Amino acid sequence: MLNLIRADIYKLLKSTSFRVCGVLFLLLMGSENFLYHLVEKMGGGAGTQTTVISRIQGTDISYQILLAIVISLFIGSEYTCGTIKNLASKHYERNKIFASKWIVSVLLATVYFAASVVIVGITAMFYWKTGDMSGTVISDTAGFLFTKYILVLSITSLYVMAAFIIRKTQFVLPVVIIGLDVIGIIAVYGDMGLTKLLGHTVQLSKYWPSNMLAQIIQSGVQHAELLPGILTGIVFLIAAAAGGVMHFKQVDIK
Asked: What pLDDT, in 10s, does the model give residues 166-177?
């Protein structure tokens, strides 16, 4: 198992998509506070309450599209090049093959998340004061970031599941990048239809990971419902992994 993980990490680090998206990630996160500060100044200093802590809390997660690209190409290319077929022919258990790629993908998402918070925190120091560092603020911030992290991991797990189900790189990319958000939008319209049909408010769509993440970010630290976010993240993290490995064990590898 460890040999599979080490081999997958090596292949990921050597891949062009990882390097290109890594550079784009650094540019994206490095420029976030510069652009935020620029907009703030153009607005006549409307954001005078901005602090380093508030910027860390508001760290952007738009890097998910880069994460989706890297994971899609990482797993899709394994099918295209026949690497997965070769691994299966060497009598590696399929659940271990899947687990290795899932673990590496989750590690990548963890690195992206942690690096984004660190980069935003460091660059924010050039523009704003640190802000309130009381124990309450620190614990609230930690809980807020942890909830976002779990939801990012759950979305990453869905990326991996989709890549194993679809397999072909040219189809995986659009499905992973666009499809998961489309499902969230369809779920919202489904809520509207059920609300009209049943005569009372239905809000099942908010439990789709991307919808829950957007809702928590929009609510902010003070008003976000963290427990539902954490539970939603854990459920989809496990469910997507279980669905992906069960599918992988049942299909023929071509």
From this structure: 877 666 677 777
Distance, in Å, from the CA atom of 131 to the CA atom of 78, rounded to the nearest integer, reads 47
| Whole-structure pTM value | 0.88
- Contact yes or no for 164/99 (Cβ under 8 A): no
Burial tier of 222 (Cβ tally within 10 Å: 0-12, 13-18, 19+): exposed
How would you label 131-161 residue by residue, b for 16+ Cβ within 10 Å and e otherwise? beeeeebeebbebbbebbbbbbbbbbbbbbb
Integer Cα distance of 33 and 126 in angstroms: 9
Token pair 């539970």 in the structure block, residue: 231
Q: What is the pLDDT of residue 157?
A: 93
Residue reference for tokens 């590696």: 92
Look at phi and psi of residue 199 and say left if phi exceeds 0, alpha if psi is from -120 to 50, else beta. left
